[in-house]
Amino acid sequence: MELKYVAVLVLVLVAVGVLVSGCIRQGGQEGVEQQPKTEMSLENNGLKVKISPVEDKVVSGVITVTLESVPPSTTKILISMVPQGFQGDLYNSSDVIIQWVDDPSSGQEILLDTTKVQNGVYGIGVAATYEGAPEESPWSALIQTQVNVQN
Questions:
Q1: CB 110 within 8 A of CB 79
Q2: Which of 53, 76, 125, 141 could disulfide-link 45, Cβ–Cβ 3.0 to 4.6 Å?
Q3: Could you tell me which residues are beta bridge partners of residue 47?
């Protein structure tokens, strides 16, 4: 008979242990807030950029493109922001942002004002080129990503 009580007691203790450990684990997770990612870091062929602020690929207001590193031979950087599916003249559309940076350097910041464009999905491109680059393939490094503009 005692063996039956010991077995029941062991089962009760195991059940209570599982419940308590689940509550402790769950309670410990409640106090931990996961910080949203506020920037995107992208890299290709020695060109490294950071785009901020970004939260889950959503941007609004003025965003900053920081050139964290630039390939040594680079003499110009092209930064563009173009709506998804765009067809037309890139240089004559109010929904396209194009900026050329002459003699770029690491740490340089370029501001893009997303309040000047319509909401929606945009491709952001950052491309490095150099003096004398061939026309058929002018980019020594190219970074592309997509963001959702919500102003």
A1: yes
A2: 141
A3: 44
